[in-house]
Amino acid sequence: MKQYPQALTIAGTDSGGGAGIQADIKTMQACHVFSTNVVVAVTAQNTLDVQKAFALPTDMVDAQFASIYEDFDIKAAKTGMLADAEHVACVVQNIKKYHIQPLIVDPVMVAKGGTRLLSKDAIDSVIHDLIPLATIVTPNLPEAEAITNMTIKNHEDTRTAAKKIASMGAKNVIIKGGHQDSDIISDYVLLSDGTDFWMASPKVDTIRTHGTGDTLSSAIASALAKGDTIPSAIRFGKSFIETIIQQDIIVGHGHGPLNHWKMAGTPNEI
Ligand SMILES: Nc1ncnc2c1ncn2[C@@H]1O[C@H](COP(=O)(O)OP(=O)(O)O)[C@@H](O)[C@H]1O
Ligand SMILES: Cc1ncc(COP(=O)(O)O)c(N)n1
């Protein structure tokens, strides 16, 4: 019997429900993909900021991978908050052990409220050990700057940064433009065959952007789990965000969550 499409998120939880694993589950659910989860860290968080974070003992992280790969037929995975170098190493080891592909690496570093979700000294491990395993790596602008050690001011800098990240071993690169201070937001995509394109959309004037990056990478992972091609999955991810960010829900007093219900009813086949 054909298995229902199944995907995996390897990330941190958000008690506020807007970002991290909670955003990933909601996105995959809206895409009609079954979501399994490896919890790397737990955060006490709301729409205002992260109040406390705790990374799980690595043997507990290993145990979750073992449980999932004993039973499920995972067709695509994504990483999010990985906390520190020890947990990056643990996740890398498991990705290799279970041959986890395709893999989307969202190199989450700092929450919208300003709290670090990846220690500074772990950035090197992400560059040297995790990015080379990525089918797609999806940094936002500050993350792309930290990874490449350059300042990104314009489209040309963005292209240069993407090439630099591709040269680190990532097959496909998306540099997300959500942090741009302009009326149009442009995400830049550099594919493994060297072709590239921009995905531009009007910047929605809202502070309810909690979990946009998690949602994008989970929507792409969902499309891949259903057998979509990489360029088509990337375009689907962008259209998913564009649709749901325009229909906000009033929850919390800070960077509110996205409205994943808006996409409920996505046809089972993309
Ligand atoms: N205000 C906005 N209006 C429309 N799209 C947005 C807005 N903010 C972010 N996005 C989109 O959400 C996705 C995630 O981008 P970004 O916010 O840069 O990532 P992150 O959450 O990792 O910081 C991108 O596709 C980006 O274009
Ligand atoms: C557990 C966890 N993972 C990821 C994010 C990033 O989301 P955002 O950039 O929208 O704050 C977060 N805030 N919390």
TrEMBL record:
Q: State a GO cellular component annotated for this protein.
A: cytosol
Instruction: List the CDD domains.
Output: HMPP_kinase (cd01169)
Q: Which reaction does it catalyse?
A: 4-amino-5-hydroxymethyl-2-methylpyrimidine + ATP = 4-amino-2-methyl-5-(phosphooxymethyl)pyrimidine + ADP + H(+); 4-amino-2-methyl-5-(phosphooxymethyl)pyrimidine + ATP = 4-amino-2-methyl-5-(diphosphooxymethyl)pyrimidine + ADP
Q: Report keywords, A-Z.
A: ATP-binding, Kinase, Nucleotide-binding, Thiamine biosynthesis, Transferase
Q: So which domain of life are we looking at?
A: Bacteria
* Residues covered by the Pyridoxamine kinase/Phosphomethylpyrimidine kinase domain: 14-259
Q: Which GO terms describe its biological process?
A: thiamine biosynthetic process
The record's Pfam families line, in alphabetical order, gives: Phos_pyr_kin
* EC class: transferase
What is this enzyme's EC? Answer: 2.7.1.49, 2.7.4.7
Q: In which pathway does it act?
A: Cofactor biosynthesis; thiamine diphosphate biosynthesis; 4-amino-2-methyl-5-diphosphomethylpyrimidine from 5-amino-1-(5-phospho-D-ribosyl)imidazole: step 3/3; Cofactor biosynthesis; thiamine diphosphate biosynthesis; 4-amino-2-methyl-5-diphosphomethylpyrimidine from 5-amino-1-(5-phospho-D-ribosyl)imidazole: step 2/3
Give one GO term, molecular function aspect: phosphomethylpyrimidine kinase activity
PANTHER family in the record, alphabetically? Answer: HYDROXYMETHYLPYRIMIDINE_PHOSPHOMETHYLPYRIMIDINE KINASE THI20-RELATED, PHOSPHOMETHYLPYRIMIDINE KINASE
Q: Which family does it belong to?
A: Belongs to the ThiD family.
Q: What is this protein called?
A: Hydroxymethylpyrimidine/phosphomethylpyrimidine kinase
Q: Which organism is it from?
A: Leuconostoc fallax
